Amino acid sequence: MFSKILVANRGEIAIRAFRAGHEVGAKTVAVFPHEDRNSIHRQKADEAYLIGEEGHPVRAYLDIEEIIRVAEEAGCDAIYPGYGFLSENPGLARAAAAAGITFVGPPADVLELAGNKVKALDAAREAGIPVLASSRPSADVDELIRAADEIGFPVFAKAVAGGGGRGMRRVDTREALPEALEAAMREAQSAFGDPTMFLEQAVLRPRHIEVQILADAQGNVMHLFERDCSLQRRHQKVIEIAPAPNLEEGIRQALHRDAVKFATALGYVNAGTVEFLVDTVGERAGQHVFIEMNPRIQVEHTVTEEVTDVDLVQSQLRIAAGETLADLGLSQDTVSLRGAALQSRITTEDPANGFRRTWDGSPRTGPPAAPGYAWTAGRCMRGRRSARTSTRCW
To answer: Residue-wise pLDDT tens for the chain (394 aa)?
Structure first.
């Protein structure tokens, strides 16, 4: 097992990783910019180091060179990326490997493939997993318009490097496509540094079902059932439920099978999530299609932990340290469901203004006192929020 783990993140996932690190006997290291000097994650780690330039807090968590420097100087032998920031960046995985530090996640080449939506769709097709009709990637609006005519409307315009609902637009008519593409390209360039888009056939009334997988370096892959993330606003998940309710057993088993098949085809290692859409209307009702793989832990991993009694973050650390699923006491035959769990994300939004995001303070609240609740937080219970942080509180 690792002796010291640097967590290249902040908020609730950093705190969660520190807990898992302590449970496996490792020391933990936090990094923080000036704006996060009062954050809880700084206080929860065994050591904490200031990084970045004042006034640019997000940039600090994206600075691979600085994170590697701190990890080396602090004597870390592993880096845990969490979600967001550099969690899907193959550059961090490669830089860590070059420094002799273990990246807690899949190999860099798998990150590169899974992080590119078009390449991931190609890999799914090759593995025999159903996908939607789609275009080739392009930053040429005219070329994408011609592709949309071939696919047929409505379509989704998606950023190749996108994630978290950013750089994505549903377009119902040819006339609306140029403006939607230009807006999505600007958003993608700002968020990911890449304006390249592709088009995908739209599913009008889908359920968004994702399957949690775990894989070790020996090629063993298993699923830990599924989560229903269909309730979303602005392509951002709001409620996640495990297992998915009212899902036909045949569909459920097909989703599990295709998730394991896809992860196996990629040579995936560590924790990941394979995401699908399940059609609910028309001739395609009950059919599923692959949409993407998230090669990292997800915000909603907690509901899977609640219903399987599997500690996913600790499993990530142990797999990265070389343990197998068998060493973790896990196999497809022995993992089972226990009840159901629901996660609700609390965000700072203004309901009087179309639920627009707001950074005007935080609600005063605390964890529920009843049994059967899990509370995951990364912010102080009192105080004001910075305009440079996410609007998700807990």
So the answer is: 999 999 999 999 999 999 999 999 999 999 999 999 999 999 999 999 999 999 999 999 999 999 999 999 999 999 999 999 999 999 999 999 999 999 999 999 999 999 888 999 999 999 999 999 999 999 999 999 999 999 999 999 999 987 777 899 999 999 999 999 999 999 999 888 899 999 999 998 999 999 999 999 999 999 999 999 999 988 889 999 999 999 999 999 999 999 999 999 999 999 999 999 999 998 888 999 999 999 999 999 999 999 999 999 999 999 999 999 999 999 999 999 999 999 998 877 888 888 887 766 555 656 666 667 666 666 543 334 444 445 554 4
Same domain as 192, residue 236: no
Tell how far CA 81 is from the center of its chain: 11
- Crossing angle between the packed helical segments 108-115 and 90-98, to the nearest 10 degrees: 170
Query: Could you tell me if 180 and 196 lie in one domain?
Result: yes
Q: Are residues 140 and 185 in the same domain?
A: yes
Q: Domain total for the chain?
A: 3
Burial per residue of 165-178, b for 16 or more beta-carbon CB atoms within 10 angstroms, e otherwise:
ebbbbebeeeeebe
**Model's pTM, two decimal places?**
0.90
Residues 40, 65, 161, 222, Cα dihedral to 10°: -70
**Residues marked as catalytic:** 296
Task: Give the CATH number, domain containing residue 27.
Answer: 3.40.50.20
The answer to whether position 307 is within a domain reads yes
155 and 30 assigned to the same domain? no
Residue 251, domain extent: 206-344
